[in-house]
Structure formats: C-alpha cells, structure tokens
Amino acid sequence: MESVEIPSKENEVWGVPFGLSEEGAAAFQKAAIDAGATRKPEDHYISMYLDKEEIFSAPLAPELASSLNKASTRRMQATVGSGDVGSEKAKMLNIHLREGALPVNVEIVGSGQVSAALGSQFKIQMVIAGIIALLAVAGMIYRRYREKRIVLPMIATSFSEVVMMLGVWAIAGWQLDLASLAGIIMVIGTGVDQLVIITDELLRGGEAAASSAQRSIKERAAEVAEKAGVGKIAGTTSKVYLARLSRAFMIILGAAATTVVAMLPLLFMGFGALTGFALIIILGVILGTFIARPAYGRIIGHIMGTD
Fold it and tell me: Average pLDDT in the 31-38 region?
C-alpha cells in the first residue's frame, strides 16, 4: 500500500480509498484469482492487518472481482458502513491504513481535518505574517545603518527573491501549502542575514564598530578610501570592492551549501508537507545565492561610489 485518501461517502456508504503499488496490485490480482475470489467474491473475505491485529474484513466486491479477471487494479476502496457509525469506522480505518502506508512506525496521538475555507484563511494569515516579518526586518536594518539608500535596496532584493520563488513554483505547477509559506518566511530571514553580511563587508571590511553604525555611507566610504590611499571609493572598486565582496560570498556560499545539505533528507523522505518546505528553501537558497545576492552586491557597490 503506497497511498491512503481521506474517507468519502458514496451511495450513503462510507469508505476509505487507497492505492497499491504496481507490484502490490499484481500480487493482489494473482491471489484473488488463485483463491477463487473472482468467481465467488461473496465467499471470500479481504482482511487487513496492522501489527498482527485485524483492522478490516469484508467480502470482495462483485465489481472489483469482475475487473480483476481482466487486469490488476491499483486503486480500491474499503467500505465500512453507513451513518455516523460508518463515518467513525472510516476515520479509524483511515488512521490505521495511513500508519501502515508510512515507511516508519508512528504513534497516533490524534487525527483531524481542516476545511478548505479554514485552510485558505491560514494561508492569508501566513502571507500577512510574511509581510509583517519583512517590515520588521526593514525597521531593524534602518536602525543599524540609518540610511534609506541601504534599506530600500535590501528590502527590494528580498521582495524580488520571493517573487522569483513564487514564479518558479507557479511555472512548475507545485502546490503552495502552509509548509511552503513557512519556508518562504525562513528564506526571507536567512536572505536578509546574508545581505547584511555583504553590506558589512563592503562598508567596514567585516569589522564591527559601535560608532560606525551611526555614521553615514559617505563617511564610511571616505574612511575606506583613505585606508586604500585614494580619494574616493569608486577608485578602489577593482581591488577593495571585489576583495570584500569575494569574502562575503565565501561566507554566503558556505552557508548556502550547509542549508541545501540539511534540507536534502527532508526532500527525499516522501512526506508531502516536509517535501514542500525543503523544496522552497532549496529553491530560495539557489535563486538568492546566484541571482539576488550578486545583484545586491552591484547595487550597494554603486551606492558606495556615488557622491
């Protein structure tokens, strides 16, 4: 068994749809034919066990028996009854089948469903949370540098990174769920952190000084130019600017590689929510490292060289 769907009601009867792998479907067809279940389905019960405990038992449906005579069937449904009793049985069977379909043992602590309307509300709340996070980050950046010419490009770069992620996500046709939105917020945070690294390297060579945070860009640029022995930062672009940008990108590439490696297990574990979370983070890291960060480096370098 490789997939289990939520309980559904058909003709007033509750059931749990599930899917078999190709090998499982072929083995089920062979067993049904060999046992004579396809000829007399009412005399042959299909039983399911989880940890040696029977969780379902019912005769083979006539229509399923007829189809098994011709070909294997991967999608089936286990019907359990009608009314409220049938609904409760379907929920419990769904839990048991999901546990059996997972590649690891789990402990069931609860089960529930979220309506489509409530899920849509959660997504709106996550988007609002992302906007609030972006504004909060903008406030902290402005408090650190006291320069709109740094804050605006940094926020614009972060926003463009989100747009690129959503664009690739839409082109690929992937579903944007709550876990993916949480991943986007995480990408915004780590992305801004790396933009701060670039800015600090270019302005101060990575040296943190309390007084330098209160000075303007021109004053810090003049200090860098003076240390380099030239009149302004534009004259040091080919040496100081590139050297400091290279140091910043060495840090960023190391962090990006670590993040991607950490997300790979989640990407290949097979859980839908975790897969989306890992995929959006890996996508954001790639787009940010190779597109957004270099673009910001050029922008901040141009700002430092202006009068």
Answer: 83
Q: Give the residue from 23, 38, 26, 20 showing the smallest Cα distance to 78.
A: 20
- The bridge status of strand 8-10 relative to strand 3-4 is unpaired
Does domain 116-304 fall under CATH 3.30.70.1350? My reply is no
The amino acid that residue 305 corresponds to is: G
Helices (DSSP H) in 148-177: which residue ranges? 148-172
Q: What is the DSSP string of 245-299?
A: HHHHHHHHHHHHHHHHHHHHHHHHS--HHHHHHHHHHHHHHHHIIIIIHHHHHHH
User: Cα(282)–Cα(270) distance, rounded to whole angstroms?
Assistant: 16
Is the Cβ–Cβ distance between 57 and 46 less than 8 Å? yes
Copy the structure tokens of residue 161: 């990174």
Cβ–Cβ under 8 Å, residues 9 and 80: no
Q: Residue 159 is encoded by which pair of tokens?
A: 């926003």
Mean pLDDT of the chain: 77
User: Which SS3 state, helix, strand or coil, does residue 3 take?
Assistant: strand
Q: Give the confidence band of 289 by pLDDT, cuts at 50, 70, 90.
A: very high
- Mean pLDDT in residue range 132-159: 85
pLDDT over 80 (residue 134): no
Residue 38 scores a pLDDT above 60? yes
Return the amino acid letter for 288.
G
Q: How far apart are CA 260 and CA 267, in angstroms?
A: 10
Domain boundaries, the chain: 3-100, 116-304
Two structure tokens written together for 45: 């019960």
* Residue 54: CA count within 13 A, CB half-sphere: 6
Is 182 strand, coil or helix? helix
Task: Give the position of tokens 């072929």.
Answer: 26
